[in-house]
Amino acid sequence: ATTLGAAAAQSGRYFGTAIAASRLNDSTYSTIAAREFNMITAENEMKPDATEPNQNQFNFSAGDQIYNWATQRGLKVRGHTLAWHAQQPGWMQNMGGSTLRNAMINHINGVMAHYKGKLAAWDVVNEAFNEDGSRRNSNLQGTGNDWIEVAFRTARAADPSVKLCYNDYNIENWSYGKTQGVYRMIQDFKSRGVPIDCVGLQTHFTGGSSLPSNFQTTLSSFAALGVDVALTEVDVTNSSTSQYQGLTQACLNVPRCIGITVWGVRDSDSWRSNESPLLFDGGGNKKAAYTSVLNAL
Ligand code: XIL
């Protein structure tokens, strides 16, 4: 295979990227994106501040721009994200208690109704844990510890056909507190029948040339709970070829690791652009890390 998407498809997986609607009329960008990838995540356009800028007034124009661009080219779309402490619309930020709980439920219902039956997965809840494995303090957490399970139950009822994921960063190292905290939550959800289908590991790697310890063990351990796993926002400081090769191999070694998404197309498109963390340079040329990933797929 000569593209990342086609190479991943050889083992039934996908290879995706994050897309910014504002860049779609850059032809270098959109040409690479459509050629190389077969799964698309909106980098910002499906987040709560974008989709519900005023309470109960939903706006899907930018999200739909990405959705339509992708599906017209035969690419699938992951939804990102419904409930998160960050990128909340202003009206939501100072809410609490049952007012916020109801607003969260209404937000999930409103956004999921619009995309019902259209997406491969939703990151229902994003980044709800602290580094030590306890719950992150946020206005959502302040509504009660059950806010995550309420979000997932609401999501399942809103669209029974879409895969529901929990997504977080720094949950790649198996011996890390945060990884264990998320693991225990998934285990608890599975034992009590709370609907959850997948765990997204953001995989924002920094520094060094080796993977976080026991990365593959983390993937297989989550999978053993009965969920799919995916690498959802991959970028690596200076595009370490050994880390890119290793994370790709780890996913391929775990049957329930269903796909890999890099968090942008070219280094210049990245939220970490000063770290040159992606697979294409600013000119749209394939980097060494691209080749290491393609060869590993
Ligand atoms: C980032 C985007 O890339 C930026 O454009 C934006 O300014 C902030 O959010 N974890 C996530 C993503 O789940 O949504 C974040 O995306 C990066 C960290």
Structure characteristics:
297 residues; alpha/beta; eight-stranded parallel beta barrel; 18% strand; binds (3S,4R)-3-hydroxy-2-oxopiperidin-4-yl beta-D-xylopyranoside; EC 3.2.1.8; carbohydrate metabolism; Beta-xylanase; xylan degradation
Describe how the helices and strands are arranged:
Layout: H1 4-9, E1 14-19, H2 27-36, E2 39-42, H3 48-51, H4 61-72, E3 76-84, H5 90-93, H6 97-114, E4 121-126, H7 147-158, E5 163-168, H8 177-192, E6 198-201, E7 204-205, H9 215-224, E8 228-236, H10 241-252, E9 257-262, H11 288-296
Parallel strand pairs: 1-2, 1-9, 2-3, 3-4, 4-5, 5-6, 6-8, 7-8, 8-9
(3S,4R)-3-hydroxy-2-oxopiperidin-4-yl beta-D-xylopyranoside (XIL) binds at residues 43-44, 126, 202, 233, 271.
Give the gist of this structure.
GO terms for molecular function: endo-1,4-beta-xylanase activity. The chain is of the alpha/beta class and 297 residues long.
Question: What does this 3D model show about the protein?
Answer:
The mean pLDDT is 98. This protein has an eight-stranded parallel β-barrel, surrounded by five helices. With 297 residues, it is α/β, with parallel strands linked by helices. α6 packs parallel to α7. It is 38% helix and 18% strand. The protein has eleven helices and nine strands. The structure holds (3S,4R)-3-hydroxy-2-oxopiperidin-4-yl beta-D-xylopyranoside. (3S,4R)-3-hydroxy-2-oxopiperidin-4-yl beta-D-xylopyranoside binds next to loops.
